[in-house]
UniProtKB/TrEMBL annotation:
CDD domains: PseudoU_synth_RluA_like (cd02869)
Segments crossing the lipid bilayer: none
Any one GO molecular-function label of the UniProt entry: RNA binding
All residue ranges annotated as the Pseudouridine synthase RsuA/RluA-like domain in the record: 28-180
Family to which this protein belongs: Belongs to the pseudouridine synthase RluA family.
PANTHER family: MITOCHONDRIAL RNA PSEUDOURIDINE SYNTHASE (PTHR21600), RNA PSEUDOURIDYLATE SYNTHASE DOMAIN-CONTAINING PROTEIN 1 (PTHR21600:SF87)
Organism: Brevundimonas subvibrioides (strain ATCC 15264 / DSM 4735 / LMG 14903 / NBRC 16000 / CB 81)
Lineage, uppermost ranks: Bacteria, Pseudomonadati, Pseudomonadota, Alphaproteobacteria, Caulobacterales
Record's protein name: Pseudouridine synthase
Amino acid sequence: MTLRTPVSLTEDEIAAVRSWVIHEDASVIAFAKPAGLSSQGGRIQAHTLDDLLWAFARSNGKRPELVHRLDRDTSGVILAAKTKPAASFLGKAIQAHRLTKTYLALVSAAPEPPQGDINVPLVRQEIGRESYMRVAAFDTKGAQGSRSRYRTLASSDDGALVELQPFTGRMHQLRVHMAHIGRPLIGDVRYGGALTAGGRAAPRLMLHAVSLTFPHPEGGERTVTAGLPEDFSALAASLDLGSGWPKG
């Protein structure tokens, strides 16, 4: 893989990133990323998941490489390639839309209808130092086609648990699409989500990448899943949306 300047990690950081591993074989390694950790880059002066991958560096200085990203406040499955051929294979698979990503999200009320497709173009907009996405007409300069599917899994008087699947990979796509149909994600300040739910403060953006199905470089398909983190399952339970979800 790419040779870069190694990042110095503490013993606690190495132990943490190793504890997040949910699948590993000769070609790939998958993590259950916690919320609040940037995948790559970002302006916060703290180690990203990409930095923490130095914990898996080999003696020749090569280390795994992330093949996709999650927003900083989104938790769940994220995949890295352990070899250059695996990285190339998975990069092509992503371009061909052969990865199936499934998310769980909390919203303040059940969508109407309870399931459906959202197929609207998005355009990137810079406001100060922040980047946003907004719904745009198909002929807007810079607009990109984007499509997501949603399905309501449980609902109550205080909110709903929805399953989301993106068919394209635009920045903030699921967040903007759900806001577009009037159901912004709880805790999503940027796109109009509620800061409280069921009388409790939302601890963060309530979006979790629960599973990823991908073609494996060695053949066949693999599905990797990440149980719900405690903050997500606790808020879901407080909204009377069930408490029996698999925990991370």
